[in-house]
Amino acid sequence: MTGDGDALGIVILAAVRDFMPKRNLGNSGVELRPDMKLMEDLGYDSLAVAETVFFFEDLFKVRIQNTELMSVRTIGELQKFVVQKLAENASKPTA
User: Fold this and answer.
1) CA–CA distance, 73 with 78 (Å, rounded to integer)
2) pTM for the complete prediction?
3) Top-level CATH class of 4-91?
4) For residue 57, what is the enclosing H or E element?
5) Would you give per-residue pLDDT tens digits along the chain (95 residues)?
6) Where are the domains of the chain?
7) Which of 2, 84, 74 is nearest to 38 (CA)?
């Protein structure tokens, strides 16, 4: 990612850290990597995932279906998913 892509990556990482379940605050100094698993490594549960999705929907004005998230397991997959949703949204004709 470069330019706007880098900024988008930073926003996504900040959201991942912000919505990380509170029990993992001791890990807040840990550098987040694309290969880290949201549930297994960062302690996300379904509620934390839902809160993160709602945040992205509001921030980026996109609609995300629960079924679309079934394949998102890692930070890297989440980043790719958000980029894809933004690209899909940008290609839709405006009314």
Assistant:
1) 7
2) 0.81
3) mainly alpha
4) helix 46-60
5) 444 777 888 999 999 999 888 665 555 567 899 999 999 999 898 888 888 989 999 999 989 887 888 889 999 999 999 999 998 888 877 65
6) 4-91
7) 74
